Amino acid sequence: MLTTLKRIVQEMSQIPALDEALFNVASRVKQVMQVDSCSIYLADYDNQEFILKATDGLHPDAVEQVRIGFSEGLIGLVGQREEPLNIEDAHRHPRFKHYPEVHEENYKAFLGTPIIHQRKVLGVITMQQAKMRFFSEDEEAFLVTLAAQLALEISNAEIRGALSSNDILPSTLHQKKVMGIAGSPGLAIGHGFSTDSTVDLRRFVVKRTDDRSQEVQRYRKAVEITREQVDELSNSLEEGIPDDVKAIFQLYHHLLDANSLGREVEAKIQEQWCAGSSLKMVVEDYAARFANMDDPYMQERAIDIVDLSNRILVNILHQARGERPQVTLADKASILVAEEVSATMLAEFPREHLKGIISIRGSNNSHAAILARAMGIPAVMGCQNVSPTLLENKEILLDGYSGEIIIGADNAIRQSFVQLIEEEALLAEQIASEANKACETEDGCRMSLLINAGLSVEIETVARNQGKGIGLYRTEIPFMLRESFPSEKEQIKLYSEVLRCVPEQQVTMRTLDVGGDKPLPYFPINEENPFLGWRGVRLTLDHPEIFLVQIRAMLKASLGLSNLQIMLPMISSVNEVQEASRLIEQAFFEVSEEIKDTGETLVRPRIGVMLEVPSVLYLLPQLARHVDFFSVGSNDLTQYLLAVDRNNTRVAALYNSYHPAVLSALYDIVRQSDAHKIPVTVCGEIAGEPGGAILLLGMGYRRLSMNAHNIGKINWVIRNVNLKESKNLLACALTAQTHQEVYAHINDYLEQKGLGGLIRAGS
C-alpha cells in the first residue's frame, strides 16, 4: 500500500496542469481501492464553497459545475469537522444534500477526508460505493494518508499552474500570492529576471584524464581567473557597503587559496580525474558537510562554496573549449530571481536596475540576505513553491517585511504598493539624516547600541553607525574554514586586528561555539540530537588544550589594551563557569609570566556568560557571583523555551520571540540582573527589531547588540519614543495570550507615534 501511495503522489507531481493531475489521482484511487467512485473537491474561500474538480464515478459534466457551500452537505461537514467521515448509507444522514448533476443516486457508502495544508482546508477527497457498508480501517487510513500527501502537491501545483499560464498575458494574470521568508525589509516592484547559469557543478559528468599535468595547470589558471573576477566583483560594490559585509568575499579568497580547496582538488587530479571532475568531488563533499550542519549560518555557506566552484568550473571549461559564456544583463527595474542567490550573483547585477531579490532556496542567514540588508534591497528567501523560470518577465510586488510575493496584482494593489514605496523612501531619508544623533529617548533615557560581528576584521561600521562597541564577536568562523585547528599565532593576529580596530570600545569575544550542530570538518561529531548535544562550552571544557590556546591568543592580542571581554556560550550550570574561569585564570597567569620582562601590560578581561539555555534562568543569583556580565542569546533561548527548530519549515511558524513566555523570561532576566548589579545585553534578533527594542527598553535593558545594518533604524526608533510609554506597552505585551496580540499592541503604539512605516507589512 505504501508503494501505491508513493506512486500516485509521484504521478501527480509530474503532471504540470492541476486539473489533469487531480483527474489522474481520482482514477488511480478508484482503480487501486476498487471502489465505484472517487472525487476531489477544492475549496474556494472567496465564495465559501467547495468545487468539484475531478471525479471518476460521478457524472463528468458535474465537474466545475457543482459547488457546495462550506456549511452544506456531507462535503461541507467534512470540511467543517476537519476529520474523516465514514457513513454506511449517505442518503440517510441528516446532512446529506442531493445534487442532481452528479448522478450519485446509486451510491450508498461514503468516505470523505479533508485535504489540509498548514492548518487550512484545501479541499475534500471522497470514495463512494453502491453497496451499503462502512469502509474498513485500512481504507480510511489509506485515504487519510493520501490526503495528507496531496495537500502539499495541491498547494504547490496551484501556484505553479497560476504562474505558468502561457495563454494569459502578464497584465491579465490572476493575482497570486506566494509566501517565503523575510530576508531583507522593504518593498519593491519589478519584473522577474533570472540569471541562473547553464553551467552547474551538480550536473557535471565526471571524466578521467591521462594528462594530469595539463589538468593541474588548467585548474590553477581557472582559479587565478576566478580570483580576479571575485576581486572585481568585490570592488564593484558601492562604497557605502559596510566592510564586514564586503568581507563575505574573504571566504571566497580563502577557498581559492592553494592550501584550501586547491590541495585536495590537485590530489584528485593525480588520481587521474579531470580538473572539473576533481573540483566536483571535493566541493560536493565540502558542501555536504556545511549543508548537514544545523546551524543556519553555516548551512548557508554550502551555497557560497557551490557558487564559487561553478565560477571556477566555467573558467576550466572556457580554457578547454575556448568558449566564453554569454551574459545577459537586466535593462529595466528588475527583481533578481534564482534557485540560490549568491553574493557574487548579487554583486554583478546592474545596481541601477536591481529593486529586489527572490531566492527559491536559502534563508535570512544567507550571504545574499546579509548583502541585501546592507544594500537596502528588499529580499524574500525560501520560496520553494516556484521556480525562477515561472517568474521570468512577470511583474512582481515584493514585500520584504512579511515575505510575501504578489504576481499579477490589480491596479488598486499596485497603486497602494507604489505609494508605500514612496513613503518608505522618505522615512529612510529621515533615519539617515539623524544617524549621528545620540541614542536617547524623548524623556532622556540613554541606550547603548552595539554590533554583532564575526565576518570581518575591519569593523569600521561601529563608529560610522553610532555603535558603542562589539557586543558579540563570533570566533568560530576561522575554525570552520581551515583544515586543522588554527594555531595560537593565527588566532592572535585575527583577534588583535579586531581589538585594535576599535581600541576605545568594548569587544566581547565569544569562545569557540562549535560541536554538535556545527562540527568542524577536521573534528567530526555525529549525534542524533545535536541541539542538545556536545557543543559550545561543553566541547571546549572537554578539550582544555583547545580552550587554553584560544584564551591565550585573546589575551596576547589584548596586550596594551583594556577593551577585551570574554563570553562563554551554552552555559547550563555553575560548574561550567567555575571550570572555565579556572582555565582562563591559568591562561592569564601563563601570559603574564611570558611578558613580565617585556614592559607590556595585560589587563584582566571581564568574564561573562550567554543566557540561552532555559536552566540558567533559575541560576542567575548563583551565576552572578562568578561573572561580570550576562548576554542574552534570544534566538536560541526562544528556540529552547518553545521547543521549536526555527529552521524546520513545518514548525518554524511556532518560533516567535514575541511569544508571551519568551517576553516574560526576558523581563525576569533583566530584573534579576539589576537586583544583583550585573550588566546585561541582548544580542539576538529581537534587539534589532523596532518593536523588540521598545519592549526591551521598557523591561529595563540599556544595552542592545545587533547586526550593523539595524543600528541606524533602532537609534531613530529609540529617539522617537519615551520610557513611560514603553513600560505601558510592555505591560500590555506581558498580559497578551498570543504573539499576534503582542504584534497588535506594538503596531497600534507605533501608529500612534507616527512610526507606522517601520512595521508596514507586519501590520
The low-pLDDT segments are 162-173, 456-465
Helix proportion: 40-55%
Largest sheet composition: 8 strands, mixed
Number of strands: 22
How much of the residues is beta strand, in percent? 15-25%
Structural class: alpha/beta
Strand order of the largest sheet: 7-14-13-9-10-11-12-8
Shape: globular
Write up what this structure looks like.
The structure is a single chain. This protein is an alpha/beta fold. The chain is built from 27 helices and 22 strands. An eight-stranded mixed β-sheet has the order 7-14-13-9-10-11-12-8. Strands 21-20-19-18-17-16-15-22 form an eight-stranded parallel β-sheet. α26 packs antiparallel against α27 (739-752). The relative contact order is 0.07.
List the helices and strands and how they pair.
Layout: H1 2-13, H2 18-33, E1 37-44, E2 49-56, E3 67-69, H3 73-81, E4 85-87, E5 109-117, E6 120-129, H4 137-163, E7 176-179, E8 181-184, E9 187-194, H5 212-236, H6 243-246, H7 248-256, H8 258-270, H9 275-291, H10 296-321, E10 334-338, H11 343-347, E11 354-359, H12 367-375, E12 379-381, H13 388-391, E13 395-399, E14 404-407, H14 411-433, E15 448-453, H15 461-464, E16 469-474, H16 476-480, H17 488-501, E17 506-510, H18 537-542, H19 544-557, E18 564-568, H20 574-595, E19 606-611, H21 620-624, E20 629-632, H22 634-642, H23 660-675, E21 680-682, H24 690-699, E22 703-706, H25 711-719, H26 723-734, H27 739-752
Parallel strand pairs: 9-10, 10-11, 11-12, 15-16, 15-22, 16-17, 17-18, 18-19, 19-20, 20-21
Antiparallel strand pairs: 1-2, 1-6, 2-3, 4-5, 5-6, 7-14, 8-12, 9-13, 13-14
Helix pairs in contact: 1-2, 1-4, 5-7, 5-8, 5-10, 8-9, 9-10, 17-19, 19-20, 24-25, 24-26, 26-27
